[in-house]
Amino acid sequence: MPVESPARPGDDGAGAPEALSHHWVGLNPVWTVEQIDKTPQYYGLVSDGVRFVAMRKEIKGGARGELTGYDGATGKRLWQRELAWSGSSAPVAEDETMVVALGDEVDSRIEVPAEFVALDTTTGEERWRAKVRQRAFMTSHLFLPAPAQGAILDGVFYYADGAKLYGRDLVTGKVRHQRTSKTHLAVAGPVAAGDRLVVLVRPDPFRHQENLDGNVRSAAVLSKTLTPVHQLDLPKGTEATQVTSGGDIAVVSEGGGTNRHMWGIDSRTGKQLWNQPLGKSQFVGPPVGNVLPLMDSSRNHEQQFVGHDLLTGRRLWKLAPRQAENRVDRSRAMGVADGTLFGLGHGVEIVDPATGKITFAAQFTPRGGGLVTAAGGRVVIYNHDGLMGFD
Description:
Blueprint: E1 2-6, E2 20-24, E3 29-34, E4 41-47, E5 51-58, E6 65-71, E7 77-83, E8 92-94, E9 97-102, E10 115-120, E11 126-131, E12 151-153, E13 156-161, E14 164-169, E15 175-180, E16 184-193, E17 196-203, E18 218-222, E19 228-233, E20 240-246, E21 249-254, E22 261-266, E23 271-277, E24 282-284, E25 291-299, E26 302-309, E27 315-319, E28 332-337, E29 340-345, E30 348-351, E31 358-362, E32 371-375, E33 378-383, E34 386-390
Domain Pyrrolo-quinoline quinone repeat: 48-182, 240-357
Protein name: PQQ-binding-like beta-propeller repeat protein
InterPro entries: PQQ_b-propeller_rpt, PQQ_rpt_dom
């Protein structure tokens, strides 16, 4: 059951007037699709707003990924096909089109080229595909949504290929924008931040450039035509590998190392808003409104959420691990859909992003786990027992 409620100032920028914020306060089951897998699987889930696509692939073995399209309102299956999805990245979708990354450049056993393939979400038919030589590959985390390897902005799909950035028409695949850097390679992104794009870059080690420090990574801000607008250099030696965004604010973070940090960057000005340390067991999740949730496994390797203010970086709250006798029942994954922060696993929780308090909790299936999205006016959850649609 979704509601509209006043959001605190800042949802549309610092000092903005209060606006209405859409979020869910409870879940009522409407439909189910049973799917019990006998072997461990990678799972993926993406929605274009009306339809959604569920993806799965065996973790062991070279099996191709299975993609199945559904109507979000009814749970009716629309199509099914196989593709060489690696299982380690998330697709993106909009306007009856999804784009999925194929191949895995960190696994030489997959003997297919790295590609992006666009599918019609109503039929599963292929719209276009594009080969990629050096894709920017962000690391996925077991208890967080897998990162996407591109972004959709105003009907254009943007992605990185080494020193090159491309913007292709989402439906036709025609190259609308293109840019090649003479000095840098993409590390992560692009992500859409407001009406701009943010890419994490590093100097190309095979291109010598005077006055360019090879140990300095940067957050590059570009327009929709891929024209450079701002560039913020991170501290020397920083091994930043991740980038996400909420509204106009991009968050760059380090995925590993002993002295990890995260930075908030205003894409409108290119200026750093804040800099906060990250614990070795903390990882940045997808922003929800003005809150940046972190996944924190520092307490006995059990998952707790930590909320930070997206505008200031200040810590707001901490949600302690679940309480249960069985350790597996204490597992909690993070999901964000339709303006709502979810705790997923053996039970589904709705978490108030302003306070970190659980406002709804229920267990709908025996085994739990899961990913979440919204489609056709429903919240859709994909776990080890199949798919469920809620209103």
